[in-house]
Design a protein that fits this description.
The chain has ten helices and 15 strands. The N and C termini lie far apart (152 Å). By secondary structure, it is an alpha+beta fold. The chain has a seven-stranded antiparallel β-sheet. The longest helix has 52 residues.
Length: 404
């Protein structure tokens, strides 16, 4: 009879051609078959319970191993952090060599800080000292000019009525004439100058000393045959309560400069030195002068002085200056700035100034004049112009003025 394999037993030929995996699978099936059919129920339950208990124990052991691993890693992290802390502590610890180096660095730092502080104090103190020293050398100029007809040699005057009162047009403008005995039609002006020599030489702008050249409103008079001339030209210095006469010594044809002379004030007259080093961009400068003329000085007097002025009989151009001088209110204003640009013809800086400050000195941090303030740009307050002091030296040499 043909061979009949028992249940659960494979064909030997299939096992022979099977792999090792096939043999294991066959063994597991045989074991499962025997366990399910040839064992008692109690045995099977006991084995299943034992397997469950073993699984639980294995899972708990796995959880315990994971926890221990995490604790170990945490401990390692703490140890690493502590090691880094120790490293930093050791690095920050002061050894004798480190202490010496620290003292040296601290000494340098303190020295640098002290030098910077000293420089700031010097600059602040220097500005105060420079302004105080230069104030007595900055002159307030006050003058007036009129016009004379070249053909008749008559002076242009205000037209008056029979009682001597001035006459005006319908637009409120005064009537002018070359006839009659009315007052001379004066054109007042103010400006700034500064003393540059013990002999009383003053530097200012040409357009201050010859103001009609810069006045477009009188061009028509000059073209019609009128010649301008100075009626009065005086100066005031702080601390001196009376005016002194000023005369034009020489005007430059190459730059906006003029040289004036005050011969009545020569003893103990303070003067400003001209700088030897040209201004450079970034240099600090101090500009001094009398911007807006009498108006700025009146604004500094206070209510009591202004009230007394209002009670006076005359508030004309000359009387106001005399009253200010007598009360010691004629003092220049000062402003600080930085040189922005320099050319052979111009020094540009941002120190505040305005009309009336023309002719004032532009001082460096040593108190030396490095330029003569000459012009502003009304549309751009950040730029004002000065004539480099080299041009002033040439003018002084041409006029024969020796500097001390």
């Amino acid at each position: 009879p043909a061979f009949q394999p028992q249940a659960g037993i494979r064909d030997p030929e299939s096992c022979l051609v099977g792999s090792e995996m096939c043999i294991r699978d066959s063994a597991l099936r045989d074991l499962s078959y025997d366990f399910a059919l040839q064992t008692t129920l109690l045995f099977r339950v006991s084995v299943i319970v034992a397997l469950v208990v073993l699984g639980i124990i294995t899972y708990q052991q796995y959880r315990s191993d994971i926890q221990l691993q995490r604790q170990a890693e945490s401990s390692a992290d703490r140890l690493e952090d502590f090691a880094r802390t120790l490293t930093r502590t050791n690095q920050e610890a002061l050894r004798p060599a480190d202490l010496a180096k620290l003292r040296q660095e601290l000494g340098h730092s303190l020295s640098d800080a002290a030098q910077r502080l000293e420089l700031l104090e010097k600059r602040s103190a220097a500005s105060t000292r420079i302004i105080a020293d230069a104030t007595r050398s900055v002159v307030f100029l006050q003058g007036a000019y009129a016009f004379r007809d070249l053909e008749s040699d008559r002076v242009l005057r205000y037209q008056v009525d029979d009682e001597g009162n001035p006459l005006f047009t319908l637009r409120g403008q005064p009537l002018l004439t070359l006839e009659g005995e009315g007052e001379i039609a004066e054109r007042p002006f103010t400006g700034t100058a500064f003393v540059v020599s013990k002999s009383g030489a003053l530097l200012t702008n040409r357009h201050v000393a010859l103001p009609w050249e810069d006045d477009t409103r009188v061009e028509a008079l000059i073209e019609s045959g009128m010649k301008p001339f100075l009626i009065k030209f005086v100066g005031y210095l702080p601390g001196i309560r009376t005016a002194f006469p000023v005369e034009l010594l020489q005007a430059s044809d190459d730059a906006d400069l003029a040289l004036l002379l005050c011969t009545e004030l020569t003893s103990d007259l303070p003067w400003l030195k001209l700088g030897d080093r040209p201004a450079e961009p970034g240099d600090e400068v101090i500009v001094m002068g009398y911007p807006t003329g009498l108006r700025a000085m009146l604004a500094q007097t206070g209510d009591s002085f202004l009230a007394a002025m209002e009670e006076g009989e005359s508030l004309d151009f000359w009387t106001v200056a005399e009253r200010l001088a007598q009360a010691d209110y004629i003092r220049p204003l000062a402003s600080r700035g930085i040189v922005g640009q320099r050319t052979a013809a111009t020094v540009v800086y941002d120190a505040d100034t305005t009309h009336g400050g023309s002719g004032g000195p532009v001082l460096d941090i040593n108190g030396h004049a490095i330029a003569i303030n000459t012009a502003i740009i009304p549309e751009y307050g950040g730029s004002n112009f000065g004539i480099p002091v080299e041009h002033a030296r040439r003018l002084l040499r041409a006029a024969g003025v020796e500097l001390e």
